[in-house]
Amino acid sequence: MSSGEAAAAAAVATPKPAPEVLAFNPNWAQLQQKLKARRPAKPSRSTDVGPETLVGSVLGKRKEREEPVPDASPPVALSPTSADCSLTDALAMDCEMVGVSSEGNKSAIGRVTLVNSYGNVVYDEYVRPMERIVDFRTRISGIRPKNMKKAKDFCEVQDKVAELIKGKLLVGHALHNDLKVLLLGHPKKDIRDTSEYELLRRGNRTRGLKHLAAEILGVNIQENEHCPIEDARAAMFIYMKYKKEWEKNLKKQFKLKAKLNKRKTKKKKKKQMDAKKS
User: Fold this and answer.
1) Where does the record place the region Disordered (predicted)?
2) Distance of CA 70 to CAs 67, 73, 198, 213, 218, Å?
3) 143 near 124, Cβ under 8 Å?
4) N or C, which end of the chain is more exposed by having fewer CB within 10 Å?
5) H helix intervals, the chain
């Protein structure tokens, strides 16, 4: 073997230095640290779950599962069923009261509203009562001192309302209170009062218009200050819903009453004739 071949063989047989040897170079070590710092940490494949994570997860799922779906809120106002603003055969009336007298505990009319069978307003006026207003009862009536600036005199309103309801079916809730403050009367046969109709009562107890509207019409009224337009509409729409049966029952009652009156009249005449004979 020549000296050149021997040197080549020695070079091939000599092993390369291990990576660990290169690691002793300070520059190489610094580079390795930088590379490790930039590498994202691998997510752990462990299936163990810490107590905090478990509690949060369970509570989160439970809260999401048990959260009730809110029901659709009923509408807060009633709207007319037609654009017809004519004077229909039935009119609904509602009044808002103010307090008069020295202590303000006597009721007087402060506003009156009439709507037709479609719920459209045919008359709506603030009223200046004959006595001085002591309590505007704004929390319920919605009437304020500024409303009296455009209010009409009591006698003018009284005459107009009497003219409008003459010969009409008058619908409302506890109408005796409204007619009382207006100092008006109306034929009993022409009154349709939602507080007195037997199918709307609970035994011998009357029910408030607010509860009737929520149950029958599915609307919220009288949430804060009362609105006579809304109250009159509610009474009218309740009447219209029961109109067919209501009128049928009234017809039977009137027939029975007429029959009883006829019998009484006959008995009275017979007694008079017997008295003459004797």
Assistant:
1) 33-81, 257-278
2) 9, 8, 35, 21, 16
3) no
4) C
5) 3-13, 19-22, 26-38, 51-66, 138-141, 154-165, 175-182, 209-212, 228-277
- Rounded to two decimals, the pTM is 0.67
Place of tokens 């309801």: 165
- Which pair of tokens denotes residue 163? 């003219």
Percent of all residues in the chain with a pLDDT value above 70, rounded to a whole number: 72
Nearest Cα neighbor of 129 from 114, 107, 113 is: 107
In this prediction, residue 268 has a pLDDT band, given cuts at 50, 70 and 90, of confident
Q: What pLDDT does residue 191 have?
A: 97
The token duo for 102 is 């020295």
Please say whether the beta carbons of 158 and 182 come within 8 A: yes
- pLDDT at 167 (0 to 100): 97
The residues near 199 (Cβ < 8 Å, ≥ 6 apart) are 242, 245, 246
Tell me the one-letter amino acid at 103.
Answer: E
Is residue 80 within 8 Å of residue 119, measured between CB atoms? yes
CA angle (67, 70, 73) in 5-degree steps: 165
List, in order, residues 6 or more apart from 154 with CB less than 8 Å away.
Answer: 109, 127, 128, 129, 130
Model confidence at 37, in pLDDT bands (50, 70, 90)? low
Contacts by residues 259-265 (CB-CB < 8 Å, ≥ 24 positions apart): none
